[in-house]
Amino acid sequence: MPVFKVPFNGYSVKFSPFYESQLAVATAQNFGILGNGRLHVLQLSPSPANPGQPISEISSFDTADGVYDCCWSESHDSLIVAAVADGSVKLYDLSLPPTANPIRSLQEHTREVHSVDYNVVRKDSFLSSSWDDTVKLWTVDRPSSVRTFKEHAYCVYSTAWNPRHADVFASASGDCTARIWDVREPASTMILPAHEFEILSCDWNKYDDCVIATASVDKSIKVWDVRSFRVPVAVLNGHGYAVRKVKFSPHRGSVIASCSYDMTVCLWDYMVEDALIGRYDHHTEFTVGVDMSVLVEGLLASTGWDELVYVWQHGMDPRAP
Amino acid sequence: MGSQSDSTPNSVDDKAQNPASQPSESTVNQGTVAKADVPNERATPSPFVNSEPIREEQVQNAVKFLSHPKVRGSPVMYRRSFLERKGLTKEEIDDAFRRVPDPTPSATASQPVVANQDGQLNSSSAIQQQVPTQTLQRAQAPSTGSISRLGLYQFHWSHVLYAIGFLAVSGAGTAVLLKKTIIPRLKSWIRKVVLKEEEGEPLVEKGNAKPNLAEEAAAAAKAAAAAAADVARASQEMLMSKTEEKRYFSELTNLLDVQIREMKTMSNAVQKLQDKGESSIPGRIATREEDDHRVSVVNSRQPYSNGKVDNRIDSVISSSPPSSVEPSAAPHPKSYMEIMAMVQRGERPSNIREINDQPPNPNQPVPNPRLVPKPKPWEVGQSQSSSGSGFQYQESSNGFTSGSQTIQLNADGSVPWWQQKNARITEIESEDEQNIRSSVPSEKPVQRSWVPPQPPPVAMAEAAAAIRQPKKPLLQKEQLTDDHLLGRASEVTDELQRITKISEAGGLEANGGNLANNASEIQKEEEQAYTET
């Protein structure tokens, strides 16, 4: 399985929803403490007869500060949204030359922007969550945010749109709560006191729109049903350190991929008694980004602070040549 | 959807108002109110809204918590956050806040920006004391910076006023004193001169009286002039000293300003770095918590976890697991620690470049999309794919084949490496693929997701016979008692259940079309069997 070396520490990797072979990687220099950033767009070359370059770079964009997250637009095949550590959200257009990019730089957050997520249902808007405790809603055509959601008491590490309801999204914060919001409502509609420690990531079940998973510093992943949110549906233990990112599979309703500071990527099936169904320890530093392809079933990608990006099929060894 | 959003705030408001009047019957009221307030197309309200009734016990615990004197002194946001973490809903928290009378917020997040002239000195000293502590708090740094600057300016002006007053008073005092000392000196000097002259008179002729007088007058005039010169010099010195003092004071205040500004920038920089350091490695928050940083978790938890606190407050807090379950910090790479140390010392890593990442044309038009968005795998087979954006979506069957694995073949006909799968997984997966691909041409495309179990195929002839059998005994043995008939009916259902379970365990192996046909067939049999009884 091929690996790609990036010059900076990897922070996030996302597959394109339009092209099976494209993925975007967000990286930051000096572990994201202080330094530049770069957004890479990589291509998986289809021909196995070209073993020298199974992953190649289509283009890359430099930023003054680290890029903590990126997401692809669901409506435009060449647009990428980047979350930058200087508080700006930048839009990049791959169909334009690098000198014409970025096409937008939206500076409204007062702290680092930690994550961005694009609306999968209506495909017209995206969210950004920041260490300034707020979540902002944007559309591509407007130069300023549509709404700001300010309720969390600490950094908001992650937001995720509901895969079936165009107006519902969830946010995970360092104040140990996850909140469910409806953009039509003035305030959050539900508060899940999901963990006793900071919640670093959340994601919705693509096949059950009321099930949400949260990943926390307490090394566990909890799966919740919002209809009865006092008790989790499942608690997934197995990571050795804080779980940094959690992602529900787009193809199998009960499969979750997660990555952690224990340098592994794990696959879980929370409906099964023995939930851990796969474990990959190919990284040599914190694994910070993981994604499962929507277009190719079983295709996983991960990146970490060891400056490597791996793309592999579930069941195969990521480090195999 | 519009009516949906209208109804939920109503139900939330009603729930909030009801328990205030009827705490005991809250559950019953809420149930009826919630149901009555949802007259829209959906049978149940949105699942993303908390429709739990307010729990009185939780509200009372929260009231006790909020009434605690130590809690009173903490910012409102921390109190809210604590209660949220304990699992209280928004309505419960609002209720608790309403029940506890809130005195003047002394150190809340929203500090009074305008300080009155009356309480100037007090407020300014208070603000000055709070400035060093609050600059450590991330969220309030910008506001307190401006507030403290404002306070210092006022302080500065009042200080100047006081200085000027003091100087004026001191100047007047010294002037008075000097006059008091100069005049006696003058007088005594004049007396001396006069005495000298008087002493000299008897010795000298009387004729010298007049010139002596003139001399005396001249001498007195000289003395007066000298005294006046002295006074002038003294007053000049005083003025100079006054201006000097004023200058010194202004210099002092300027220096203080500069110092404070520098301190603020330093603290901001330290904050930023600490934030980045802390939040980018949240695993380390556990150890940092002991250092009593911004994390309010520990700030609010520590005062209550010791035995001094009321038992009932403990019950609210003891529901959380003991603090010994703190997660261990992940070991960070060595170069990470080096960079953190370098940044905290104030050094800038040498590999950072100056990059201009601003958009060259902020009004660059967004390009037209070249591809139509593909339906997601979980949207396939559903008719509720949204059309709000005006894109044309492919039909479900076409979308299915294109949304799922379109195996691109290379020039030599081989499969791209990222679609090749491991042998053991392909065994399981290829079966699914074949099933699904074969069922695509049928009328009902089968979803690749979890499919509800279909009634079993007629693979077991005995089962089919068993199902069909009860008809004959029912027809023949009409004299059977009711118990027997019921027994037969239950046998049929048991048979069916057993067969269903077996087929479920075996997995979906048959064609979708066949299943549908078999399902209808068996359902017919069932109906007939039941109607016979």
Automatic annotation (TrEMBL), chain A:
GO terms for cellular component: cytosol; peroxisomal matrix. Its main location: cytoplasm. WD repeats lie at residues 106-148, 149-191, 192-228, 236-269. It holds the Pfam family Beta-prop_EIPR1. SMART domains: WD40 (SM00320). Residues 155-268 form the EIPR1-like beta-propeller domain. It is found in: Cytoplasm, Cytosol; Peroxisome matrix. Keywords: Cytoplasm, Peroxisome, Protein transport, Repeat, Transport, WD repeat. One of its GO terms (molecular function) is peroxisome matrix targeting signal-2 binding. It comes from the Eukaryota. GO terms for biological process: protein import into peroxisome matrix. InterPro entries: Beta-prop_EIPR1-like, PEX7, WD40/YVTN_repeat-like_dom_sf, WD40_PAC1, WD40_repeat_CS, WD40_repeat_dom_sf, WD40_rpt. The keyword Phosphoprotein does not apply. Belongs to the WD repeat peroxin-7 family. This is Peroxin-7. It comes from Coffea arabica (Arabian coffee).
Automatic annotation (TrEMBL), chain B:
Residues 286-295 have a biased composition (Basic and acidic residues). Gene3D superfamilies: Winged helix-like DNA-binding domain superfamily/Winged helix DNA-binding domain. Its main location: membrane. InterPro entries: KPWE_PEX14_dom, PEX14, PEX14-like_M_plants, Pex14_N, WH-like_DNA-bd_sf. Residues 359-375 have a biased composition (Pro residues). GO terms for biological process: protein import into peroxisome matrix, docking. Residues 154-273 form the Peroxisomal membrane protein PEX14 central plants domain. Residues 1-11, 18-32, 398-415 have a biased composition (Polar residues). Residues 1-55, 271-331, 351-415, 428-457, 507-533 are annotated as: Disordered. Residues 55-99 form the Peroxisome membrane anchor protein Pex14p N-terminal domain. It is found in: Peroxisome membrane. One of its GO terms (cellular component) is peroxisomal importomer complex. The keyword Cytoplasm does not apply. Residues 331-379 form the Peroxisomal membrane protein PEX14-like KPWE domain. Keywords: Membrane, Peroxisome, Protein transport, Translocation, Transport. Residues 315-331, 381-397, 507-519 have a biased composition (Low complexity). GO terms for molecular function: signaling receptor binding. Belongs to the peroxin-14 family. Component of the PEX13-PEX14 docking complex, a translocon channel that specifically mediates the import of peroxisomal cargo proteins bound to PEX5 receptor. The PEX13-PEX14 docking complex forms a large import pore which can be opened to a diameter of about 9 nm. Mechanistically, PEX5 receptor along with cargo proteins associates with the PEX14 subunit of the PEX13-PEX14 docking complex in the cytosol, leading to the insertion of the receptor into the organelle membrane with the concomitant translocation of the cargo into the peroxisome matrix. This is Peroxisomal membrane protein PEX14. It comes from Coffea arabica (Arabian coffee). The gene is LOC113742523.
